[in-house]
Amino acid sequence: MKRTYPDYYDDFVCIADKCPMTCCAGWQIEIDEDSLKNYHKKNIETVDFKHECFFQDRDKRCMNLNEKGLCKLILEHGEEILCNTCRLFPRHIEEFENVREYSLSISCPEVAGYLLKRKEPVTYRTVEDDDVDSESYDDEEQAVYRKLYVLREAFFKIVPDRGLSFAEKAGRILAIAREFQSGMDYILINGDDIESLDVEGAIGADYRPLDITVEGRYELFKVMKKWEYTGDEFKDVLKVTEKALYKASGSDAEGLAQDMKNALSAQGIAPNILTEQILHYFLYIYFCGSAYDEYYFGQAQLAVAACLHIWDFAMAHFKVHGAISLEDIIYFTYLYARELEHSVPNVLATERYMDEHPLV
Q1: Which is nearest to 47 in space by CA: 67, 24, 31, 25?
Q2: Is the CB of residue 347 less than 8 Å from the CB of residue 302?
Q3: Domains of the chain by residue range
Q4: By three-state DSSP, how is residue 5 classified?
Q5: What is the rounded distance in angstroms from the CA atom of residue 66 to the CA atom of residue 17?
Q6: Residues 305, 275 contacting (CB under 8 angstroms)
């Protein structure tokens, strides 16, 4: 079995009650079967056995949280009492035949901070062991995964190229993904052999830098207004952003973006590196997983859209407050990921819009 980890994976340590946004609130915590049996045996009263999750209070906080933000289950029984969801978060695993790709979700504030405070590109380590994969896989899906892996390796050469602007990186990545999607669609419709698809041809696809109008960006922004939310915090950010960027008369988006970049640069923060890390993150975690849903172009678009959305929040904050910090951008990043990554309806709504209105 091959196992791949980002270079900061082993550095993560949960900061528990010091976390600015607990992972034990906002969404329901699903409980695995073995843990349910254990909780039933121990008569844990905070468990909703009917719906296989923990009860929440009126503020959508897990009933196991005490007033200090610490887990009462751990305090009473030790960490071994945790269900798989609580034990693993923010760790994430994508599974392919004899391959496991590990990551940490940036919906966790501590992980978002790790990622956005670093200036060097993310690297990966792969270890191989003697474990035998007991899962069964569809041969065609795994053939697609191998193709997607090659494309993603090409993306990983484009993303950290600091001689390219974000628009150039996004334009090239989207052109490659679109070309691959077109080729795969043709193969699937005609029943051709997946191995016949020319991956190198897709990588060499013609492209133009991403050029999205203010109107187009606003339409993409409005998709988030239709999302489901874990709380009011994200809705408040949307309201502020929409008012500051898209409903204010005489707004100069290009000038505002440049002023914000100058403000960040004055603090020793490179704006292009921030978008590089976010783009790289979404491509690593989700692009190859599209082998299972055939939405290859959609996952590439979702990665680019994440950068555009987070940048919108940052620009609105800068316009309203006249200042911006790295901590502000970290906050917008984990808040956004919190709403997107753990909600299938939100992902599907965004993908559906971009399918009908592609970025390129």
Answers
A1: 31
A2: yes
A3: 24-88, 152-356
A4: strand
A5: 10
A6: no
Chain-wide mean pLDDT for the chain? 92
DSSP state of 71: B
Q: Does 115 have pLDDT greater than 70?
A: yes
Residue-wise pLDDT tens digits, 266-320: 999 999 999 999 999 999 999 999 999 889 999 999 999 999 999 999 999 999 9
Q: Which two tokens stand for residue 169?
A: 């990186």
The structure tokens 């603090």 sit at 267
Decide: 20 and 118 in contact? Cβ < 8 Å. Answer: no
Is pLDDT at 249 greater than 80 in this prediction?
no
What is the reported pTM?
Answer: 0.90
Contact 104, 5 (CB under 8 A): no
- The answer, yes or no, to whether the previous bond of 90 is cis (omega within 30 of 0) is yes
Which residue from 270, 272, 279 is spatially nearest to 173, judged by alpha carbons? 279
Using the structure block, give the residue that is written with the tokens 């994976």: 9
What are residue 45's phi and psi, to 5 degrees? Answer: -80, -10
CB neighbours of residue 41 within 10 Å: 8
Q: At what angle do helices 214-222 and 344-356 cross, to 10 degrees?
A: 150
Q: How far apart are CA 24 and CA 312, in angstroms?
A: 27
Do the strands 91-96 and 99-104 form a parallel or antiparallel pair, or are they unpaired?
A: antiparallel
